[in-house]
Each structure stands twice: as structure tokens, then as C-alpha cells.
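TL;DR need C-alpha cells for one chain.
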Amino acid sequence: MRSRARALGQVLALGAAAALAACRLPRESPSPRFWVLTPVDASVSDAPVVRTVGVGPVDLPAYLDRAAVVTRAGPRLDVATYDLWGQPLAENVTAVLGRNLECMAPGTAVQLFPWNVPSTDLDQRVTVQFTRFEADADGAVHLDASWELRSGATAKQLASGRAAIREPVAGANVQETTAAMSRALGQLSRDIAAHLESGSGASGR
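>> reply
TL;DR here they are.
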């Protein structure tokens, strides 16, 4: 009996050790998913270039300056673990705004900040300061921003505006959230493009 009990005890001890070792083995983590915002679904006009516009800098709230996608639930910010931006969000926003303006204001050529030409070679410059740009628990993306359009040569203010955009999110997932963020950027771009079209290519010179 004693030998049988001793053997049973050894089996239980080995089983416990195996279970403990299994718990300590590294578990496979979900693969990260990378996201980017996209411009409007439109082609750039083949009209002759009449203005060169510098887009940027674009300022985002510090809480959005991170690799992960951020959403909001009232005062609480939720930072995704595996949903990451494919490039810094400010760079992505700048690029999308630039592409949108080229599509929406025929004859516009865009230089993204930091541009490769002297600012005096730009006809106009657009800067945007965001105070909010994320999805909330109310089922929508909120974009709050102010923008300025200035002369490239003299930095004289040509136009300015504020935007408070609410874009519904079709589903509770990051794919639909980023799509809504892209649509909200499209609305902001239209507001700015209207002022580019109303001015001349030499408006700041």
C-alpha cells in the first residue's frame, strides 16, 4: 500500500510540475493590425497648376501622439493594444489633407510640411490645429479643429475657419472608425478647398 501511495504521489507531483511548466510557456499573442486614413475617392484634375500650396504643420492633441489607435468614452481614453497606426498620425493626416486639396481644388499642387521648397515659393500655406479627432462611445468620430490659410510670401492671413464635425461610425470596430475619420477629414478638406478656389494663384504675392 505504501509503495502504491508513493507511486501515486509521484504521478501527481509530475502532473503538477507539467501543468506549471505549461503555464510558464510563452503564449502566442495576436498579431498587430496596422491602419491608415485615406483620401477621398476622387482623381486629381489635369487642369494646369495655378497655385502651389504648402500643407502643414498639422498639430494634434498630445493624447493622440502615439502608435496605437485611441478612442474615447466620455472622459476616459482607451488605447488599443493591437490596433496601430501604419505611420505617425500627424503625418498621415497631413498627407490625406494634401491629397484631398489637390482633388477638390483643380489647379492645386501641394507641398507637404516640411516642404522641399522655400516658403516664399509657395502661393499659400494651410495650417491646422486639432483639439479633438477620435471616436467616442456615442457612435461617432468627432473632429474639432481650427485652420488658417496664409500667403506663402508674406504670411498674411487670407482666410481662417473652425470645424466641429461629427461623423457616424457604421460599426463598433477599428475599420469603421478609421473610415469615419477619413470621411471627417474629407469634410474639413472641402471647407479649406473652397477658400483655395476663391483665391488666385498669386493671392499672397
